[in-house]
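Can anyone check this?
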Amino acid sequence: MLLRGDTDFSQTQHLDRWNRDGVLFHFGYDASKKLKKMAGNLAASEWTKLERPSGVRLTEKRRLKPDRVKEQIVVAREYDNIKLLSEDIAEFEYKPVACGQAYRMIVIRKNLSVEKGDKVLFPDIRYFFYITNDTVPSASEIVFSCNDRCNQENLIEQLSNGPRAFQAPVDNLMSNWGYMLMGSVAWTLKAWLALWLPESGGSQRKGDADSKRPSEKSRLLKMEFRTFVNTMMRVPCQVSRRGARMMRVLLGIVGSPTFSVATWHR
């Protein structure tokens, strides 16, 4: 079992128990004054440059990067701007106060430049810490594992601000539970719809070798709930009356120029 989380999950009073039970953990850790002092006292030979993966697979087509308009505005209006110059990584043994043994403490040193317009105001150094009992991976692999933790934070944010499952407008626990359940079901149906889509059998047009279905499935699965509702649920409809009947014309959705016509009698 592997536990991953940010600094709020590094509860030092439980680390020894998890370690005895054979549970591995990769946690972020608060940058206290003591830890920053220990990191600052490390010898230069103990630091190595951190090389982060590009995130683009070799089989994927690289798209052209758009112009950095925001960066140009920040410089033109002389806003304070913090630029990352480089990252260094090191590790040392550290025993938290509530623990009976020491664990691996991995530290990243971010070398920053604080600028205002075209002028460099001053350099800045910030430290980020990660604690783990996993002795097999390298220090950089532990950091990437912590940065690539599960999607629960986005799920909590979406449940709160998407279907608003955590904002029940009722006055008792039973009603709150029902409201939360309905919001969760709405989000789950959206996820099920994405998982139901097939990943094979894409376009059969001649010369179109790459199937678009996997990317469309991934896009729908990661889509924010509000975007999903506006794209897939709220279909634009034109209502017109012709004599004794009412006609509803479903306008094209998702960029489709076609129309679907449905007619109902009174």
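Reply from J.R.: I decoded it. Strands lie at 2-5, 24-29, 48-49, 80-94, 103-116, 119-132, 237-242, 245-250, 260-265.
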